[in-house]
């Protein structure tokens, strides 16, 4: 699994959390993780 795929999954999770009106701090944490994953050059997996 590439960083891009992980990033997409986290972004989808954040979007679904927002859609279902989950805790906004949790969805922001997922969005922050997407930003961090996009910035690193090494693969996470």
Question: How would you explain this protein's 3D organization?
Answer:
The protein is an all-alpha fold. It has one domain. The chain is 73% helix and 0% strand. It is built from two helices and no strands. The chain has helices at residues 3-19, 24-39. Helix 1 runs antiparallel to helix 2. The mean pLDDT is 96.
Quick structural gist:
The chain has 45 residues and is mostly helical.
Integer tally of domains: 1
User: Would you report the number of β strands?
Assistant: 0
* Structural class computed from helices and strand pairing: mainly alpha
Estimate the strand proportion.
under 5%
Largest sheet: none
Low-confidence segments, given as residue ranges, are: none
Range of helix content: over 70%
Radius of gyration: 11 Å
The rough form would be described as elongated
Q: Return the average pLDDT rounded to an integer.
A: 96
Question: Distance N terminus to C terminus?
Answer: 6 Å
Note the run of SSEs as H and E.
HH
Can you count the helices?
Answer: 2
